[in-house]
Design brief:
The protein is of the alpha+beta class. It is built from 17 helices and 29 strands. Helix content is 33%, strand content 23%. Strand 24 and strand 25 form a beta hairpin. The longest helix has 22 residues. It is globular and about 80 Å long. Bound molecules: 2-acetamido-2-deoxy-beta-D-glucopyranose (12 copies). The site of one 2-acetamido-2-deoxy-beta-D-glucopyranose (NAG) has 5 residues, from helix 17. One 2-acetamido-2-deoxy-beta-D-glucopyranose binds next to loops.
Length: 699
């Protein structure tokens, strides 16, 4: 019996790997590992086999892959910009499959069936591996006629990985052979520490590498793009006749850095050919606390004394990494199948997981004076601004961060926020909204009193959630006074119950008495009660708990439509105007008892009607408010899906989000804000997509 269930669960997974493609995101990840190693390929309107990969914002990051089969050259990706007499053909993409760690494309190149595996590892509980800023491209193939063919492969990258300004001067080293690996290394002539230009960093070193296999004929060269590519096409490999000039502008005769492999006459390979692409920033964060600045280094530097040794490790780790990634994919697939057997939640997690991890910079332990030898993680407001650890985004991503619970990702994300604000309780009466607006410079907390309830609520809820899911109460003890003063800000003058002078983080509205904001504030007071209980402060527990209950009773009498079938936007608001009350998910996440379950049942019926295609039918999910111009948000819809009490309605909500994720109208990456009428992307943070894990976390 058990075996049968197991077999049934596995069937869809296997079927999808070699099945007909059903999921059509507008852009698919190629190398998505850090805020600055974040390259995609658009799928809208064309075949990716002849397009340039792009940085998340759409700027080309030159990277091409050719295969030569019996003297005929095909692109597998990358826009071949050689004159037409070179007769290069684009391969035919026959299948694209996504897993949380991999993008797999099957491309036909004449008689060769080629598989590209872009592996961006996700290692939540191994911060050394997680922080290595490298990604794999593995290529293997089988001939469709069973015959051997003469095969050469070629891939190069350009200097476009180094700056958003393609006129910048770059420099490079001749190809290096360590005995174990070969690699190219390129950087800006003058790097600017911790600076960005058009979203790309200005202080990194790009690497392009391959492990040496004694039996493989590997050649490297540095030269102008057309020179190297023509050389490969005509000579079936590159030569070591490097251009001895080692600096010029990125866009001046486009220097490129190929690694080519001549496999001779073969019909398939046992081991894939693996290129490694990297973008290394060391130090990666400039951390300022109380006026003292420190350059923090990436976490892996605690284990590797040089970048070269880290790169050698990453190259040698491919088989382990692929096995670990495949296991993580299977775990997530099984978890997602229990919620959404049609595979649509898994499809979305297959984009979101890499994206959220890629927004994190993980730093090596450092003593700040406030906290000793601590690991700190900083989240970029990736794809939107340069804000550092936006607190509302941390809140949106909490479900994913808590899901990878052994990893304890929440503590190192909260620590910098807490230690920065703990320096002055009187200055930080309410919680800051982020740690500055110039990532990767961490300049300090930005306090905005108009977001006081929002961000204070987020911090208290995140702190309790972390303690509950990790059983680690150390932050609660260390920052108890700060948490208590924040909770007092919420209770004083009924601040959280009757929000005023507050600005919505969702639509900028400034209407007083926002019901969705108030309910977050009230849950946060309850969170403080439970924090007090966990640290043994019984009086505080009783006081905050009784305030939360009494506030919630008032909230219920003011916030609901007459039949309790919707939550009004503001107390006593127009009966026809409703808000998507995604903050109700906090009760589900933390197992609170403040709201009557009957209310959840009533709201579930309403959302079930709205989402049902035979009724009103929001095809792409629910907007944040009733207004017709109101956009949709993936995380907030996922919070509601996790909150509703009917699994059919939950599945319908998740399926509607999938309709957006799979709509290939525009070629932007999967971002959290979108138009609910058309399913096209608006913008929003990648990290917030961690909210898609909400259905897994219910207490
Ligand atoms: C867009 O998605 C549809 C399915 O919804 C698919 O048939 C089509 O091939 C996709 N187009 C591209 C360019 O991926
Ligand atoms: C293509 O044409 C250019 C310019 O006429 C010439 O230099 C080059 O050798 C030609 N290449 C091939 C493969 O014929
Ligand atoms: C190409 O490879 C894919 C994946 O391994 C396989 O599903 C497909 O049948 C192959 N195509 C041919 C023509 O052999
Ligand atoms: C290589 O090809 C085989 C057969 O098509 C496939 O199952 C395997 O996953 C491919 N990829 C890698 C990285 O080995
Ligand atoms: C070497 O670089 C110079 C520009 O610095 C360029 O004029 C020349 O064509 C390059 N030669 C090769 C072989 O790439
Ligand atoms: C290696 O490949 C290059 C480029 O195709 C070729 O010129 C050379 O003869 C090959 N070397 C061996 C030992 O096969
Ligand atoms: C680069 O310098 C080496 C050594 O001086 C020389 O052999 C080679 O021909 C030079 N390459 C070019 C493209 O000029
Ligand atoms: C780090 O940030 C501080 C404060 O903004 C600044 O004074 C310092 O120059 C920065 N350090 C570097 C290396 O950029
Ligand atoms: C908020 O709602 C309460 C209760 O309905 C009301 O007394 C108060 O005037 C409202 N505040 C504002 C600023 O409208
Ligand atoms: C609406 O909810 C309130 C508070 O839970 C409850 O007192 C009231 O009876 C409910 N009304 C309906 C029509 O269910
Ligand atoms: C929940 O509300 C329903 C109807 O509104 C009521 O009958 C029930 O007693 C309430 N349950 C609790 C625990 O308050
Ligand atoms: C769950 O929702 C579906 C769709 O709205 C509905 O058909 C079904 O009756 C509901 N189930 C329960 C137990 O309320």
């Amino acid at each position: 019996m058990k075996l049968l269930v197991f077999a049934l669960l596995l069937v869809p997974f296997i079927a999808r790997v070699h099945g007909v493609q059903t999921f059509w995101p507008a852009a698919i990840p190629y190398a998505v590992r850090t805020p600055y190693l974040n390259t995609w390929i658009g799928t809208a309107g064309s075949d990716s086999s002849k397009d340039w990969p792009v940085f998340w914002d759409g700027a080309v990051t030159g990277w091409i892959l050719y295969i030569q089969v019996d003297g005929k050259t095909y692109t597998l990706f990358g826009n071949n910009n050689l004159p037409s007499n070179y007769s290069v053909t684009a391969g035919i993409v026959v299948e694209t499959e996504l897993t949380p760690t991999q993008t797999i494309q099957v491309i036909e190149a004449g008689p060769m069936n080629v598989t590209l595996t872009f592996l961006s590892p996700v290692n939540p509980s191994d911060l050394v591996r997680q922080s290595l800023p490298f990604s794999y491209l593995a290529v293997n193939f089988t001939s469709t006629d069973g015959q051997p063919h003469d095969i050469q492969l070629y891939s190069d990258i350009s200097g476009e990985w180094l700056s958003g300004n393609r006129g910048q001067e770059m420099t490079w080293s001749p190809p290096t052979n360590t005995g174990d690996i070969v690699y190219h290394q390129l950087r800006l002539q003058t790097s600017s520490a911790f600076q960005e230009n058009t979203h790309q960093a200005e202080d990194g070193v790009a690497y392009f590498a391959m492990g040496l296999e004694p039996t493989r004929n590997i050649t490297l060269q540095t030269c102008e793009d057309t020179v190297c590519r023509e050389e490969f096409i005509l000579a079936a490999g590159v030569n070591s006749n490097d251009n001895n000039s080692t600096n010029r502008a990125i866009n001046s005769l486009w220097p490129v850095f190929p690694i080519s492999v001549n496999l001779g006459s073969v019909s398939s390979v046992d081991q894939p050919i693996v290129w490694i692409i990297g973008y290394v920033r060391d130090p990666n964060i400039n951390y300022t606390l109380s006026g003292n600045s420190a350059s923090l280094r990436p976490y892996y530097t605690a284990n590797f004394s040089t970048t070269e040794s880290a790169l050698e490790f990453f190259v040698s780790d491919f088989n382990n990494s692929l096995a670990a990634a495949t296991a993580l994919d299977a775990d997530l697939h099984n978890a997602a199948s229990t919620v959404s057997p049609d595979g649509k939640l898994y499809d979305m997690l297959s984009l979101a997981t890499r994206q959220v991890f890629s927004s994190l910079e993980i730093t090596a332990p450092y003593s700040s004076g406030q906290a000793d030898d601590a690991t700190r993680i900083f989240m970029k407001d990736l794809a939107r601004t340069q804000r550092v650890t936006p607190v509302e985004t941390l809140y949106a991503a909490l479900p994913m961060l808590l899901y990878f619970n052994n990893a304890s990702l929440v503590k190192p994300l909260l620590l910098p926020l807490l230690e920065q604000q703990n320096v002055s309780l009187s200055q930080y009466l309410c919680a800051a909204k982020d740690l500055g607006e110039s990532f990767p410079e961490v300049n300090g907390p930005v306090l905005l009193s108009q977001e006081g309830i929002e961000q204070t609520g987020n911090m208290l809820i995140a702190a309790l959630a972390h303690a509950r899911y990790s059983q680690d109460t150390s932050l609660l003890h260390d920052y108890y006074a700060l948490f208590k003063s924040w909770a007092q800000y919420l209770t004083t003058d009924n601040n959280a119950l009757y929000p005023h002078d507050q600005t919505s983080i969702d639509d900028g509205s400034t209407s007083p008495n926002s019901t969705n904001l108030a309910v977050k504030g009230i849950f946060a007071i309850q969170a403080m009660a439970e924090i007090s209980q966990l640290v043994g402060q019984t009086n505080d527990y009783q006081q905050f708990s009784s305030t939360a209950s009494s506030f919630m009773q008032t909230w219920q009498s003011l916030a609901l439509s007459s039949g309790n079938e919707t939550v009004l936007i503001t107390y006593g608001g127009q009966p026809a105007s409703w808000v998507l009350p995604y903050n109700l998910y906090v009760q589900t996440l933390l197992g609170f008892n403040l709201l009557n379950q009957t209310l959840f049942d009533q709201l579930t019926v309403t959302y079930g009607q709205w989402i049902d295609s035979s009724f009103e039918g929001y095809k792409y999910g629910l907007p944040i408010e009733s207004a017709s111009t109101s956009p949709g948000n993936v995380a907030w819809n996922a919070f509601i899906a996790a909150t509703v009490t009917n699994n059919t309605v939950r599945d319908q909500l998740l399926d509607s989000l999938w309709n957006y994720a799979s709509s290939n109208a525009t070629s932007t990456p999967f971002l959290v804000w979108y138009d609910v009428e058309t399913g096209s992307c608006i913008n929003g943070s990648m990290s917030a997509l961690g909210g898609l894990f909400a259905p897994f976390l219910r207490r």
